[in-house]
């Protein structure tokens, strides 16, 4: 159950990143129905990412009988906790009021989503290193592809 929630959180996360990255790498993508749909619903998809991530964390916490008082819990869960923190910041500021108040800083804050993109492979590897499944492979492939798309996008921006 916990991996299923993590898988759906990953799918929704990737769906939030696709419009901007695909538009930059594949300019014709902006004319597709998928692009318009993802762009229109990006905020709610991002909130679903956060909700699914919280559910994933709660199920894992419950299944492993973890204790918040145990320092070992934090050591083992640092990648997931960092991701959850980033997703919480993004979810809390995914509203019109935050966009108005933060102005340019809102865009800077939301660029943390790419930090999350780089943390996800670490999280997957750290947690699933001894029990890889098809779901794990799909999530890792998605994460690496998102990173590659972002890097290609940044490379194109540098060229001009």
Question: Can you describe this structure?
Answer:
With 160 residues, this protein is mainly α. The protein has helices at residues 2-25, 33-40, 42-63, 71-76, 78-92, 96-102, 104-110, 112-128, 134-159. The longest helix is centred in the C-terminal third of the chain and has 26 residues, at 134-159. It is globular and about 50 Å long. 21% of the residues are buried.
Keywords:
about 160 residues; single chain; mainly alpha; 9 helices; about 80% helix; globular
Which assembly state applies to the chains in this document? single chain
Q: What spatial form do the alpha-carbon principal axes imply?
A: globular
Q: Strand pairing plus helix content: what structural class? A: mainly alpha
Helix percent band: over 70%
Provide the β-strand percentage band: under 5%
Radius of gyration: 17 Å
Counting DSSP H or I runs of 4 or more residues, the number of helices is 9
Task: Kindly state the number of beta strands.
Answer: 0
Largest sheet: number of strands, sense, barrel closure: none
- Low-confidence segments, ≥5 residues, pLDDT <50? none
The arrangement of helices and strands along the chain is HHHHHHHHH
**N- to C-terminal distance:** 45 Å
